[in-house]
Amino acid sequence: MIKPRRIGHATFETPDLEKAIAYYGEFMGLIVAERDQDRAFLATKVGQLVIQLNKADRAHCIKLSFEVAPDSDFGELARELSKDGVRSELRNDAVPGMGQVLSFKDDKGTTIELFKEWNYLAKHAQVAGIGPFKLGHVAFFTPDIQRTVTFYERVLGFRVSDWIGDFFCFMRCNPDHHTVNFFTGPDVKLHHIAFELKDFMHLQNSCEVMGQKQIPIIWGPLRHGPGHNVATYHRNQDEQVVEFFCELDQMKDEELGYFEPRPWHRDTPQRPKLWTPGKTSIWGPTPEEDFHRTQT
Ligand SMILES: [Fe+2]
Predict the structure, then answer these.
(1) Architecture of the 134-292 domain
(2) I need a surface site. Which of 96, 168, 186, 271 has the fewest CB within 10 A?
(3) What predicted TM-score, i.e. pTM, was given to this entire model?
(4) What SS3 state is found at 116?
(5) What are the sequence ranges of the domains in the chain?
(6) CA 45-48-53 angle, 5° bins
(7) Gap between the Cα atoms of 171 and 81, Å rounded
(8) Cα–ligand 1 centroid distance for 20 (angstroms)
(9) How far is the CA of 55 from the centre of ligand 1 (A)?
(10) Which residues on neighbouring strands pair with residue 242, listed in sequence order?
(11) Could you report the per-residue pLDDT of 96-110, keeping only the tens digit for each?
């Protein structure tokens, strides 16, 4: 079984590379670690690569990378993938700080790259803007959610953390409540991408920055039920929904099977469960109409 330890970076195609670099650099507070005419690589202030931008005709999230254990044998992982009918190849995408990757597509056509070696790109740089800790999770619309969830369970060893109805699934690969989410939709596209902030004060500060920059908050601040994270949502330069969050539920021990107890849990212990649509917030406003606008 392949066991991703964490998400690495997400790769976006974007029609306006300069605008995207300005958003992720000046507003988000990521460091441009390397760039050329058609690509840019952005890292957190800690130095982890989190976003790759490729100039293209459309705005689309095309690839996710996941870190596997340093002693992983890519040949063995490739054989395991092939037993599941997944064709993979060893590649070197010349991503700064990263060596060889094992590349394949998931059931919905998103490229997945597994890596086991990486270097810090810009250690503890001072940043303007928000300066998130890390890339937390990426959510996709997918036309066959059961097939996608089964793929991530069977092929990549993810576990289901929560469902909302039968159309929204949260999945984990480490103590974080979710690293990928899937939402039923007619086409494969990004639902939202989420960055973890330090704490509620950091989240409040991000709201002040959005206020200064006149970036509308389209949902939140609120505390979710699934994951119990405090969150806000806005749109980036390509109209994609971006979440900032803190205080996400942690499953510290899989054998215990419950999330670390928190005062805001209504179920004690809080185990993975099925949530009722429309009743998934602990507190906070309902989404603005713009939150539901599907990006083109
Ligand atoms: Fe999220």
Answers:
(1) Roll (3.10)
(2) 186
(3) 0.97
(4) coil
(5) 6-115, 134-292
(6) 95
(7) 20
(8) 21
(9) 25
(10) 193, 234
(11) 999 999 999 999 999
